[in-house]
Amino acid sequence: MKSSWKMDSRILDYLMLVLIQSIAILAVTDNNDFAVLTALRSSWTNLPRNWGDGDPCDSNWEGVNCTGTRVTNLSLAGMGLVGRSISDVSSLTALQSLDLSNNVNLSAILPPSIGNLRNLSVLILIHCSFYGPIPDSIGSLQQLVYISLLGNRFTGPIPPSIGNLSRLSWLDLSDNNINGSIPVSSETSPGLDRLLNARHFHFSRNQLSGSVPSQLFSSNMSLLHARFDGNLLEGSIPPNLSNLRSLNELYLANNNFNGNIPNLTGLINLTYVDMSNNSFSASGVPEWFSSLQSLTTIIMENTRLQGQIPVDVFTLPQLETMNLSNNNLTGTLNIGNSYRNNITLDLRNNSITNFQQSTTNYNMDVELVGNPVCNTNGRAPSRFCSIEDPRVFIPRLSNCGAMSCRGDAVLTPTCQCSRPYTGTIHFYSVSFSNLQNVSYFNSLNGTLMSLFLSDGLPVNSVIASNPVIDLYSYMQFTLQIFPSGQDSFERRSVSRIGFLLNRQPFHLQYFGPSFFIDQPYCCFSGSNNSSHVGIIVGVTIGGFILVLMIVLAGIYAYRQKKKAKRAMDMNNPFPSWDPEKESGAVPQLHGAKWFSFEDMRKCTNNFSETNCVGVGGYGKVYKGTVDTSHVVAIKRAQQGSMQGAHEFKTEIELLSRIHHKNVVSLVGFCYEQGEQMLVYEYISNGTLKDCLSGKSELKLDWNKRLRIALDAAKGLSYLHELADPPIIHRDIKSTNILLDSHLVAKVADFGLSKLVGDTGKGYVSTQVKGTLGYMDPEYYMTQQLTEKSDVYSFGVVLLELVTGRAPIQHGKHIVRLVQEAMGDTKNFDQIIDPNLDSRAKLGGLEKLVDLAMGCVKEFSVDRPTMGEVVREIENIMELANVDKKTNHTEFSSSSFEKSTDESPLRSYVAEEFDESYGSFPFRVERN
Ligand SMILES: *[C@@H]1O[C@H](CO)[C@@H](O)[C@H](O)[C@H]1NC(C)=O
Ligand SMILES: *[C@@H]1O[C@H](CO)[C@@H](O)[C@H](O)[C@H]1NC(C)=O
Ligand SMILES: *[C@@H]1O[C@H](CO)[C@@H](O)[C@H](O)[C@H]1NC(C)=O
């Protein structure tokens, strides 16, 4: 029986092959282009499944568009492509548009042969892993209108030949390692000043050096956006900058510019300007502040502004945001009474001494902390002198009652389950300050929705949520795009959505230009079998073969389905997973116990609310008692955040192997009745975050903080250096460091952990997960995870211990805050946690801050290992004369005893939401 089926299937395969080949004879695609696509098919993986079926142009291979017989459009964004060369693409000589964005495993150079693509007008390679220099031959692509190479690892200079691209409108080279100076033309060489049609120069965050040449600002240029921020540029800004009368947005921040603050009076269309953190000569508030009527945003942090702010600045009709913090502004702050409502005004750390009250009720946000005016009672409204939490838009969640979805599915706004294409959209700028005003989000959703629908994409809805201001002051949102009429997207839709979001053929009110970085899509729906076969058949083959093919295709599909089911059965190791029956697939558990659902239900009073001690994106945490006296925390996954059986098994195997004093240990697990629960030891004193933020009554003096730092470092160093296999935690943060009854710190929550070693390369390349504020910027950009990413996060925790602040407050990252304060004793004193003693009593403070800053170095190679961190903290404690051992009696003080009894929230709450912390809640959903 079995063998005859096997033979049938071989005949079937053969017949299918013959049929497909006979179709190929009728091909319409140019032979050369066909050969190129075939070559790509064998050198890249994860290409759409229908590549190879029939003829590319005739049968519409996904991501390929043809004009006549030639391939003119290759659009493979977000496919998860893996490849090491794109040289073949250079032979698609009729290509007009090439988009390979969001394929981080496409790791290649841009070959000089790219210069053969003489018809190319759009080139988008955002967020892949391209490296090496940008070839000079790019200057021969005379049709180019749009280039974005953002977020790769390109090195070397900007090729001057780009200056030959006379039609170029958009040039984005941001987030690479491009160096050298900005090329301008000479008698013998082209340069960027020849790009008279350029609207967008985006060169942010590279290594560009030298001065900005004045030729770039000739009055023939028509730039809208000029982004030079985050480079090593120096010298003074050429005065003819004011020639750029069409300029909307100007970004010069974070360079080494000196000389005078430029006179922008001529830039009558300017809406957004950021010149922060440069070394300009000291100057008063420039007059253009009050004369440029279009300005919505002025950001001039740390630019040596001095003197009094003229009152007419506040009458600008469009003004939303003004950040002049960390300057030397003095005198009286007079906002007047004809200011615009809802302005956000950040004047922290200046020398303002007085406040002139013009009305009784200011409808604006002013921050004056760090000014003398806040030290004298009553001069300024007190709310201007206190640190307020940022106002954040909380997206309306659909009210779908108790509904929930399985697996990767998510509820749409209309309460259906489907699987959204998800990613992050980053805006270089926004023109509003009020993040609570829903209008802006609706406007964004609406524009994107109509973009997709007018393109014929099967999109049901779009949700933008979780606004976050990232390290680089970009506003970013999580974007979920839901499919309509089906439960997941086809590949062609995903690549088209990616293309539209990165090509930006739309104008968004209130939002500047953007780019889109996706999370690899979980679940492309297959499109080839059904519709596709039908089309070929209809077009090319007569009656008899048609019938035969339909029959064959039916059998084929049936067989594939059977195969799939068999594979699925084999994929579930758990049916045999009952310890009573000691059979095959029982996982390798080291001391972790199996609990029945009934055990769990009983010990938590039927999962009662009073036992619930924490809630997170994955579900709830309950306190319970097992084996009559053992207090545990039970983490119960909810529908929709369950892992696959294999992942769950892997996770408990991993967790059960971990045994260290400074790591929370797994007691057991439950996998029954469709539930997944992890049972941990109960840690009674809650999270480090609670202690630092004042939510808990526990107060941590300096010595306790040093001990906690040492404990946590030891736990982490164990995971990196002693656990077998080593583990990268991936989500180190103060909510994941728990304190037990003796204030011994324990590292918790390995839900997001990754084993090291499987790849053999010393890094694990994976989808970026973690918590904003703690996330290693290098990991974020390269998606390559190493132990050093944990070291970065640990550095942020150390800074929290010193400052008592959240990693991001007021959109400002703690690393930058400390960096800025470090040179200056007065400022530095201000950032130390006010709950700590005076600075003189904090032994080893400077050394600990130095260590923390070493941990958060930009490049991971410059950061210490966790082992080195442990040793350095030990040294610091020795110098500060702190006993390294936790002194038990020290903590049986009455306040501590009291707090354990009274606070119901002391517990395993590692993943609770971050609302109270003054930072933006930012969670990347688990798969
Ligand atoms: C990239 O490659 C690595 C290893 O080859 C793999 O584990 C990872 O899933 C890939 N990432 C994507 C997005 O395909
Ligand atoms: C700035 O430029 C405008 C005209 O372009 C000029 O009238 C004004 O005096 C300049 N301001 C300063 C301070 O030089
Ligand atoms: C929200 O923003 C829109 C657009 O700027 C504005 O018209 C509206 O008045 C704002 N609403 C509130 C409540 O501020």
How are the SSEs placed, and which strands pair?
Layout: H1 2-25, H2 31-43, E1 64-67, E2 70-75, E3 97-99, E4 122-124, E5 131-133, E6 146-148, E7 153-155, E8 170-172, E9 179-180, E10 200-202, E11 207-211, E12 225-227, E13 232-236, E14 249-251, E15 256-258, E16 272-274, H3 288-291, E17 297-299, E18 306-307, E19 321-323, E20 328-329, E21 332-334, E22 344-346, E23 354-356, E24 365-367, E25 410-411, E26 417-418, E27 421-427, H4 438-454, E28 459-469, E29 475-483, H5 491-503, E30 514-518, H6 528-540, H7 543-571, E31 593-594, H8 597-603, E32 612-616, E33 619-626, E34 630-637, H9 645-656, E35 666-672, E36 675-681, H10 688-693, H11 702-722, E37 727-728, E38 737-739, E39 745-747, E40 754-755, E41 764-765, H12 777-782, E42 784-785, H13 787-803, E43 808-809, E44 812-813, H14 814-822, H15 825-831, H16 845-855, H17 866-879, H18 894-902
Parallel strand pairs: 2-3, 3-4, 4-6, 5-7, 6-8, 8-10, 9-11, 10-12, 11-13, 12-14, 13-15, 14-16, 16-17, 17-19, 18-20, 19-22, 21-23, 22-24, 31-35
Antiparallel strand pairs: 1-2, 25-26, 27-29, 27-30, 28-29, 32-33, 33-34, 34-36, 35-36, 37-40, 38-39, 41-42, 43-44
Helix pairs in contact: 1-7, 11-13, 11-17, 13-16, 14-15, 16-17
Q: What this model shows, in words?
A:
Keywords: ATP-binding, Glycoprotein, Kinase, Leucine-rich repeat, Membrane, Nucleotide-binding, Repeat, Serine/threonine-protein kinase, Signal, Transferase, Transmembrane, Transmembrane helix. It is found in: Membrane. With 927 residues, the chain is an alpha/beta fold. Among the domains are: 76-280, Ribonuclease Inhibitor (Leucine-rich repeat, LRR (right-handed beta-alpha superhelix)), CATH 3.80.10; 405-518, Alpha-Beta Plaits (2-Layer Sandwich), CATH 3.30.70; 593-681, Phosphorylase Kinase, domain 1, CATH 3.30.200; 688-896, Transferase(Phosphotransferase), domain 1 (Orthogonal Bundle), CATH 1.10.510.10. Helix content is 25%, strand content 18%. It contains 18 helices and 44 strands. The protein has a 14-stranded mixed beta sheet. A six-stranded mixed beta sheet has the order 31-35-36-34-33-32, sandwiched between helices. A four-stranded parallel beta sheet has the order 9-11-13-15, with no helix packed on it. A hairpin with a 5-residue loop joins strand 38 and strand 39. Helix 13 (787-803) packs antiparallel against helix 16 (845-855). The longest helix is centred in the middle third of the chain and has 29 residues, at 543-571. The protein starts with a helix and ends in a 25-residue tail after the last helix. It binds 2-acetamido-2-deoxy-beta-D-glucopyranose (NAG) (3 copies). Residues 80, 82, 104-105, 520, 765 line the site of one 2-acetamido-2-deoxy-beta-D-glucopyranose (NAG).
